[in-house]
Structure formats: C-alpha cells, structure tokens
C-alpha cells in the first residue's frame, strides 16, 4: 500500500534501531526525514533513496527540531544518549539529551500538530522488580539516570497529550539486538559484545555471575512495532517484548554453539546499575497493537552472525594490501 501523504520524521534515524525503522518505513511507501547529529549513528547505515532526506542536527537545539518538523505528519523519536553507564557518570549531560532533547521534540511535534508521536522509552524504567513479567502498570524504580530520564519522558508525553492533544505512544523496548549494533561502542548491548569477542576468538566478559536474565528482542521486530505504533490510534506506554527471558550464561552457551568457539567467560564485578532480571509482559502489545514478535532468539542470532561474518569479510576485502 502506498502512503505518499505520510511524511515521517525519525530522530536518531542514522543509529541502530533508527536505520532499521527507516528502511521499513521506506519499504512501506512513507516519505522519511532523518534528524541525527551522528554522535553515535552513521550515514552508511542509511540507504540512498528518493524518499529519504537526511538533516544533520541536534535534538537539544530547538531550531534544528523546528526545521526538521516542517511538513511532517508523524514523528518517531529515537535520538538519545543511550548508555546507562554514561548516564551514571555524567547525569547532567545525559539529561540534556534524554529529557530536554526529548521535550524539544515533543513540544515541536505538538506545535506542528503531528498525527502521532512514537518515542523510545525503555525497560530501564522498571528497575529491579520482583513482579515478573513486567507489566506497564508496575511501579517504576529506575536504577540509573537513564531509566529515570525515560520515565520522565513518559510523564511529559502524558502531560503534553492533555495540554495540547498530542497523541503519543512510548514504547518500552526490552534488550534489542541485531545487525548494525556497533560491538566496540561503549553503548553496545551484551549480544553484540559477546559475539564480537567469540568471533575474534577472545574470551567473552560477563559482569557478575551471569545468572542475570534479559528479554532479547530482534531489531526487525522493534522496527515493525515502531511502524505499527505510528499508525495506531492508541496512546500511552507499551512494552515491546518477547515475554521470554534467558540468563547471560544460557545466552553465551547458544552463541558458543553457533560460533563454534567454546572459550570460557571472564567474570568482572557486577555493576550497581545493572538490573538483575528483566522480562516483559506482552499482553498489552498484543491487545493494543495486535503485535507479536516474528523472530525467535535462535533465528535472530543466526541472522546476526551471518551479517557479522559478511561485514568482517567486506572489511578485510576493503583493506589496502600492505595495511
Ligand atoms: N538498543 C537497545 O537495546 C534499546 C533498549 C531500550 C531503549 N532504547 C532506545 O532506543 C533508541 C535508539 O537506540 P539505539 O540502540 O538505536 O541507539 P543508537 O545510538 O544506535 O541511536 C541513537 C541515534 O541518536 C543519535 N543522537 C544521539 N544524540 C543525539 C542528539 N542530541 N541529537 C540528534 N541525534 C542524536 C545518534 O547519533 C544515533 O544515531 C534510544 O532512544 C534508546 O534509548 C534502545
């Protein structure tokens, strides 16, 4: 179906989740504008496409956001300072991106009267809870400034909806993995980091005992959830989850098997800001968005390893002969 009238602004569109979302939006016939300051994203992540426009700019600057919001009907807000550790080390800087930047986007979206704003929240808003699986109405007890910032964004979105009628949905992504997540970046998720070490035949590093568990969602499913939420009349917050979790030790076992690298893990001290167990409840996701993840962990890992090997080959082939 062609949707030429719908013009979507994707903030953070040159990043990991953003670039997959942009690809899907283009495939579905949308016109897309990306606003990204390229602090952690890459232009290489984006295709050359006649319906895609790139604007280099910063969500902390209201003029950039105002310009990017011109003529758009929908907004997918993903740009953020995404490292939990950095938010602990420098909470003020983190808040300028994740609270003030997000507020700029929400305010300009309200001014532009967009049909729908979808923004990235996070499972980090829950913090440590013994009420698993985590339902959207659970008490929020973030363990990091990052989790608190995402929770504040949700409160602002609710307020702007009642003050200005801005329809919005905050998606609480659980742990996202897939191609284009840079394993060497300090922001990388655990799957990218484990895989990078195993493919390099180096021992993977685990913080703590490895019994902490996570709910891993493939990035292709996240992109589908983003597009579904943009088109849905529903407003509020919603988990994007598989509803299943796995410990890091079990995850490592899968990856060892798939990479045929059986090196033991090196354990480092656990981090205070690390959540012990994380597993989302998928009921609202299903009821509100009729959404079910399509990728099992096994399928997603196989796809990721295939992609990783292809990009390693491309990197080696592109090297000068005497490098
Ligand atoms: N990856 C995960 O597991 C996960 C889980 C929960 C929530 N999220 C959220 O999803 C969103 C996307 O995360 P991601 O994993 O794709 O990260 P990413 O770092 O790959 O993407 C973020 C993008 O935002 C851009 N950016 C950062 N600050 C900016 C600013 N001030 N102005 C303009 N652009 C800016 C970066 O250059 C990057 O391209 C973030 O809001 C993140 O908090 C991610």
TrEMBL record:
Signal peptide interval: none
Pfam families the UniProt entry points to: Epimerase (PF01370)
InterPro entries: Epimerase_deHydtase, Lipid_A_modif_metabolic_enz, NAD(P)-bd_dom_sf
NAD-dependent epimerase/dehydratase domain: residues covered: 8-235
Domain of life: Bacteria
Protein name: NAD-dependent epimerase/dehydratase family protein
